[in-house]
Amino acid sequence: MKKITSILLVVCLLGALCACGAAAEPEPSAVTDEIIASLSIASPLNVPAERLLALYGIAAEDIAAASSFTTLDGGIFPDEVVIVKAVDPAAAGRVEACLNARLDSVMGQAQNYDPESFAIAQQCRVQKNGNYVALFISPQHEAMEQIFDKAFQ
Rounded to two decimals, what is the model's pTM? Predict the structure, then answer.
């Protein structure tokens, strides 16, 4: 009886340790909701996942889940927030390439028209965590990046 109890205890402890080590898999919409609430973003304009192909070149078959929004506050260029959970690592790589291309495009346009937006875009980067890929083009990009990173803890 003691052996069975000991074995059950060991199995339960191993299960608990495995659960503690599991990485969080947040819903992209939960992360954007947290960004909007924490940073008091007024009037965000939701960008439906179906529009990601036209706006960013992200194919629907690469998307497991996505949430994105833009704002029209200040500057010539709007703030852009895009978070995609890709279906697999290869898809995450393609999404990352699309978002890097968008960031490059924004920098190229801003360089000629709006030095303030260009300075902000130069500080922004595409972030990747497993199959999650995110782009934050905003004066508040650092705070947004921290919220994104925290979602995986």
Answer: 0.83
